[in-house]
Amino acid sequence: MILLAAEASGVANEVVTTTSGVIGLAWLIPVLPLLGFVAVLATTKALGDRAANLALAASAATFALSIAVAVTVITDLATYVRPMPTWIDVGGFTVTFDLLVDQLTAVMLLVVTGVGFLVHVYSVGYMHGDSRYPRFFAYLNLFLASMLILVLGQNLLVLFLGWELVGLSSYLLIGFWFEKREYAAAAKKAFITNRIGDVAFMIAMFLTFATVGTLDILGVVENAEAIASGTAFVLVLLFLGGATAKSAQIPLYVWLPDAMAGPTPVSALIHAATMVTAGVYLLVRLSPVLVQSVPGMEVIAYIGVFTALLAAIIAVRQDDIKKVLAYSTVSQLGFMVLAVGVGAFRESIFHLVTHAFFKGLLFLAAGSVMHAMANRADIWQMGGLRKAMPITFWTALTGWLAISGVPPFAGFFSKDQILTEAYFHGYGFIWITGLIAAILTAFYMSRWFFLIFLGTPRYGDEVHPHESPRSMTIPLIALAVLSTVGGVLLNPVHTGPLYRFLEPTVGPIDDLGYEPYGPLEESVLIPLAIVAAAIGIGLAYLLYLRRPIMGARTSEPIRGPLAELAERRFFVDEAYEAVFVTAGGGLARAMVWFDTRVIDGLVNGAGGGSVLLGRGSRRAQSGLVRRYVAVMVLGVLALLAVLIAQVV
Amino acid sequence: MAIGYYLVVSALLFSIGLVGVLLRRNAIVLFMCIELMLNSVNLTLAAAARLWGGPDGQVFVFFVIVVAAAEVVVGLALIVNLYFRRGTLDVDVPQLLRW
Question: Percentage helix, strand, coil, to 5, in chain B?
Fold first, then answer.
């Protein structure tokens, strides 16, 4: 709504370096939650559960400050640089903690702190009674601080610092209930998978520095056009490698579904709304580099669209209330990545924002349902919760309609704009595949929604579902409002306010030579997208709601080889297990053998050899005086012989 | 004066002493053989001093005699103690200082 007032100029931003005003205080945005993290840990002993209020206050303060910063950017469009102390200064290489605040940052700040604050509020109710209640809030604050460092960093290395820290907080929060072995394993899986992407990111930074001579984002963007296309291609692939891990794309998406082991607010905040979008943010932030290599962008697009399709197919057959949403998140992230790949940078950010609204909402609704169902997660054990939980039902309804792409809810606009942009940029295959993924999205989300909230109850008498406390329903309502009106207010038409607002921050795509794939206009493409949503919802209605047999079923009635394959997630985890874990284990065993046999053998051999030598030579120490004399005489005689031989 | 005779006598004395040290096992005899070797060296030194007409060799002989006297004190004390403790004078019997 505030964005409506913004009139983007359509030209590049002016760079303003300032330490005064609201921008001058921007450094407090990541520092406040960081202080909150430290304060909560320090006062937990003295204050007990009340220490969590500090974290709540920190998140609220940083949200307020983010609004102020965003308003500054909106009223006075520019790229603000807030100078900060130097981190590294070696030779010609300087890294500072300078903050970069432009339109893209403003959007990310609002999403991160806004959803972050709501999740903090929600957690008050959801985590109530947990034995580590204050620590949970401390970790949430640590995550907020890390994510804000990532978003605000003006230097790729500072961005990487945040990138690593969100990985750490993600690890801590996935394994929050580490007493359960599989939860701890899921945390490790997430961390290790992300390390693979981190390596790609690091190599990308090395190459960037070698090519451009700086890691400052503004410097890199400014010199992007000078990068040779071959180098740019490699750079794009390396940054994509980093993004595939953080944003859960093929082939590194496997950690995200397992990350659902964490408490549900964590899934909502980190593994749906914010952290997983870091990869998309990175790609959009570096879009001026991306446009130097159209083949590289095409790789991004295909990775994205295949991820969207694969995850959507898997999501159709998941029975866990959070696993469906997890695969849905992977799929929606696929949409964002494919948008980046087809040159629809701003549409990607738009989808990022609306997705944060509706997927955060859906996760929080799922948490509310699990809260009411005594932590049951099997959607086949639910049904008919509409009556018992009216607020959760109505808010989840808006989330469901939004993600399914039903107008006028937020997801419809963002997803539709990505698909039409793919079409207008000549990527027909991606458009069709994306449309199929959109049908599947509507289908599996409807299945999820129908099985939980509609129909007849399939749970036993031992469960007494009830509406969640106010601290949980208020964030639900807030996100439901955003999911409903977010799309209309931000970007109701393709070149809407958000689109123009973000223009100066993304790479130019005008001279990439994009041609429309076919003759269809938006007036045809938009109805097509609505038809896709209707097909998905209608199919789900026929299969899961209308059929009377559903009444008593407590397991999936539709079976078949393809269904089985989707249910087993295409055996990707098993394949990785076989290839990487087993092969890695074999390699490790070979290394151990080499170390214990060859390396240790050499060391022990040196010792053993000395022992043997000593054992042999100590025989000379006979204790017989006369033998010593004899040896000495022989020695003297030998010396004499040598001397005489020399003289003669 | 031909120094050769002195040297031959000296070498003979030294060799007798050496062979005695190597072949005999009785500690007293061993000791006397060592004295024999010392004295053969003394003879050489005296002869050489006479040949060169300097006092150095003769002074050195006195030193050797003095040191040898001290050595006899220590050596005989060792031998007496050996006999008291082991009841033998055979130098091959005590073999404690070995591997």
Answer: 80, 0, 20
Which whole number is the average pLDDT over A210-217?
A: 91
Sequence letter at residue A464: H
Dist. CA B59–CA B43, nearest whole Å: 12
Across the interface, do A626 and B97 touch by the CB < 8 Å criterion? no
Per CB-CB distance under 8 Å, the chain B contacts of A629 are 21-22
CB spacing of B99 vs A625 below 8 angstroms: no
Considering only the beta carbons, identify the residue of B22, B96, B98 that sits closest to A626. B22
Q: Which residues contact A352 (CB under 8 A, 6 or more apart)?
A: A111, A277, A280, A281, A336
Count CB pairs under 8 A between chains A and B.
29
| A623·B95 Cβ contact <8 A | yes
Chain A CB within 8 Å of residue B25 CB: yes
Helix then strand count (H, E) for chain B reads: 3, 0
| Per-residue b or e along B1-34, where b marks 16 or more CB atoms closer than 10 Å to that residue's CB | eeeeebeeebeebbeebbebbeebeebeebbebb
Neighboring chain B residues of A622 at a CB cutoff of 8 Å:
95, 98-99
| B22:A624 CB<8 A | no
Q: What is the ipTM of this complex?
A: 0.85
DSSP type of residue A549: G
Cα distances from A163 to residues A33, A52, A236, A271, A281, in angstroms, run 16, 25, 18, 14, 11
pLDDT digits (tens, 9 = 90+) for A251-292: 899 999 999 988 999 999 988 889 999 999 999 999 999 999
Residue-range domain boundaries for chain A: 294-509+517-567
Q: Let me know how long chain B is.
A: 99
Minimal Cβ distance to A622: which of B18, B94, B98: B98
Mean model confidence pLDDT for chain A: 90
Contacts of A621 in chain B (CB under 8 A): 97-99
**Is A618 within 8 Å of B18 when comparing Cβ atoms?**
no
Rounded to an integer, the average pLDDT of A351-361 is 94
What would the mean pLDDT of A414-435 be, rounded to a whole number? 93
Any bridge partners for residue A79, and if so which? Answer: A15
Q: With an 8 Å Cβ cutoff, are B91 and A625 in contact?
A: yes
Domain B3-86 fold is Helix Hairpins (1.10.287)
pTM given for the model = 0.80
B21 at interface of A, judged by CB pairs closer than 8 A: yes
Residue ranges per structural domain of chain B: 3-86
Residue A408, preceding peptide bond in cis (omega within 30° of 0) = yes
Read off the pLDDT of residues B38-93 as tens digits, 9 standing for 90 and up.
Answer: 999 999 999 999 888 888 889 999 999 999 999 999 999 999 998 998 888 888 88
Residue A21 in this model has a pLDDT that exceeds 50: yes
